[in-house]
């Protein structure tokens, strides 16, 4: 093989390997997921369709151009119309007071389309961040389980040495071997959970052989509850409710404009047709003509149906007013529900932080207790059961603290997503 080709392949393999080994941060994971997500690709195309539809200018004139040629004749009568070419051009437009709110309607349609994309993005974002924290925490759980297995193996080897020297009973050795099996099972379960979480994250990002950078499990306190309440108005659900209120108001104005206010319309049409004919009947004759079919009209329509209480117009007007009130009440209800969700999340997160602090303190004491128990066991003052209990206490609390940190970060991300803001805007 050519030496240059070999060198190129080696460099290519090196580059690919380095890329595959690159550890990605949470922000990079989110960016990849948002750029590769198929649901968002569909949502972006749907947004573009909506924006295209709302950009149509109905005030543009209608323009048409027509032309044709006709050839006829009679053999028996010795007549021939050699050619009758025609051409016509028409320009027409209509302006009506019914189109008064077109601009406002297009603006609301555009806002609604953009909001739809934001909702889709928010849903994907929440899914990705949850998957990220599940993967990060399960990876750390594997490390904890590996350390626990290493400790169990070390203890078991020491037990075997004592047993072989006749200083330990077979029962005590059996307990040590059982502890190793328990640690192995815990590690296998942790690896299975990690592989499942990683597979889901790889699916969301569109990457294979994904590797995470060391996650930051630092915990911060939330801003005061009243400050969080002030952020509810930028929530996507509140924005959606506000848009529904504006849409109801616009519908009411359109109904009044159509069913109550006089309607004025003006239309104009400019049309010019030309024709030329050449015929033979004993002799050749020709004719050229120009026809102007322009027109101009203005109309005024005064609706009266709304004056009758049971008419369709009257009912439509009343319903549109009721719809405004319904949407406003729904918006108020949405705000109260948001505040309740924020309060619930706030209490849960603050409680989690307090539990984290207590668990961390307990873990410190448990590690100290383990060191003392290990020393006592080596000098024959503590039993193997006591040592095993101390080791298990440390392992359990490490997993408990990790689970608390996981729950905290998922809850914090969910709260930030709910309020449609960044985490730094809701923490101290």
Essential attributes:
Outer membrane efflux proteins (OEP), alpha+beta, disordered N terminus, two-stranded parallel ribbon, 428 residues, elongated, 9 helices
Number of domains: 2
Q: Which blocks of ≥5 consecutive residues have pLDDT under 50?
A: 1-21
Helix content bin: 55-70%
Distance between the termini: 62 Å
The CATH architecture assignment of the largest domain turns out to be Up-down Bundle
Q: What's the CATH first level of the largest domain?
A: Mainly Alpha
Mean pLDDT: 83
Query: Main β-sheet, in a few words?
Result: 7 strands, antiparallel
The backbone outline, from C-alpha atoms, is elongated
Kindly provide the radius of gyration, computed on alpha-carbon positions and rounded to a whole number of angstroms: 39 Å
Computed structural class: alpha+beta
Q: Give the SSE order as H and E letters.
A: HEHHEEEEHHEHHEEEHH
Q: How do you describe this structure in short?
A:
The chain is α+β, with helices and mostly antiparallel strands and 428 residues long. It has 9 helices and 9 strands.
Break the fold down into its secondary structure elements and pairings.
Layout (H helix, E strand, L loop, with lengths): L2 H19 L1 E2 L1 H11 L1 H17 L7 E7 L3 E3 L4 E5 L2 E11 L5 H63 L5 H36 L5 E2 L12 H5 L6 H24 L3 E19 L1 E10 L2 E7 L10 H67 L5 H35 L10
Helix pairs in contact: 2-4, 3-4, 4-5, 4-7, 4-9, 7-8, 8-9
